[in-house]
Write a structure and sequence with these properties.
Structural class: alpha/beta
Largest sheet: 8 strands, parallel
Order of helices and strands: EEEHHEHEHHEEHEEHEHEHEHH
Number of strands: 12
Helix content: 25-40%
Radius of gyration: 18 Å
CATH architecture: Alpha-Beta Barrel
Oligomer: single chain
Distance between the termini: 13 Å
Number of helices: 11
Strand content: 5-15%
Number of domains: 1
CATH topology: TIM Barrel
Strand order of the largest sheet: 3-4-5-6-8-10-11-12
Length: 321
């Protein structure tokens, strides 16, 4: 049986249903809030519950919460959210964002060995997520376990902090079978992430690249897809960066090239201004309520939509050693 690890326990992968593969529901503080401002602080369980209920109304079933360690993640609030919305599956990540949102000199990633970092990631997947978000020094394991691993890289380069995080995440992924669900800054360094993971022995089907649609170059995406990795195409209605037509066209070109089985969808609504429950934005239901109907209008098949929303994430988020 292939299982997906949610914060309430393991489920059969076939139970995941429609999946939002990269989302932010709770972020109580941390480096992104300090660096980017209060728009990034998402403290309200009530608001998160409202977003999840709306996602369910449009057919959603599973949300992957991608706030990583030491960055305002709050597993206690996530468990409270799941109690309020019991008919949703929530997957919580462990791992790290790109280094610019941490203190790159004093953070424990820079002080610990790669194997020590890997052990901490493995413990969150196999034992339980730290209620104190690995802000230390006391670790209190919750009953909730992480279901995937995040790493991030900077815009156009990879820092020493990120190199260590990548290597540790690779070890943890191989040990646990957890998916590596990544952040690329504006779509850069995706190929370099893949190069490093493969060199450490990670299987391509354990790698999902995030935000690469911000570099909507079909040639680049086909080169990546040819290596066997997958994509989380996220961030709809970000018209200050690109129109939705770019993401739709990219999806259609990848499907036509034979890579339908390597695409998932997500909204990545990680700010108050992106969330209806905070009085603005498009909400985490945007792909289901707006973007997927658009894909249908533009001729994307139901088979492809079912793969992107259901079949592909069920396979990818299943723990596979």
């Amino acid at each position: 049986m292939s299982v997906i690890r949610t914060i309430l326990g393991d489920i059969d992968a076939s139970e995941a249903g429609v999946v939002d593969s990269h989302e932010h529901l709770i972020r109580i503080g941390g480096g992104e809030v300090i660096k980017e401002g209060e728009d990034y602080r998402l403290p309200s369980v009530e608001a998160a519950a409202e977003e999840c209920e709306r996602f369910i109304q449009y057919g959603g079933k599973t949300v992957v919460e991608m706030t990583p360690a030491s960055l305002g993640r709050d597993i206690v609030k996530m468990l409270e959210l799941n109690a309020r919305v019991p008919n949703i599956h929530l997957i919580q990540t462990t791992g790290f964002q790109f280094s610019g949102v941490y203190d790159e000199t004093c953070h424990w990633v820079m002080r610990y060995s790669v194997n020590q970092i890997a052990d901490l990631l493995i413990a969150e997947i196999e034992e339980g997520i730290d209620e104190h978000d690995y802000m230390g020094p006391i670790v209190k394991r919750s009953k909730a376990k992480a279901g995937c691993i995040k790493i991030g890289t900077s815009y156009g380069f990879i820092t020493e902090f990120e190199e260590k995080a990548i290597q540790a995440a690779a070890i943890a992924s191989i040990e646990t079978g957890a998916l590596l669900n990544t952040h690329t800054s504006r779509g850069t360094m995706a190929m370099e992430q893949v190069d490093r993971f493969l060199s450490f022995g990670v299987r391509p089907d354990r790698i999902m690249l995030g935000h690469v649609q911000k570099n909507p170059d079909p040639w680049y995406h086909k080169k990546l897809a040819s290596r066997g990795v997958s994509f989380s195409y996220d961030g709809g209605y970000r018209v200050k960066y690109w129109p939705d037509s770019d993401r739709a066209d990219l999806i259609k070109q990848l499907i036509a090239a034979g890579y339908q089985k390597q695409i998932t969808l997500a909204t990545d609504s990680g700010k108050k201004s992106y969330l209806k429950a905070y009085g603005a934005g498009t909400g985490i239901d945007y792909d289901l309520s707006v973007f997927v109907p658009r894909l249908r209008e533009e001729g994307v098949s139901e088979e492809a939509i079912e793969d992107m929303l259901v079949n592909n994430p069920a396979r990818l988020f299943a723990l596979e050693k």
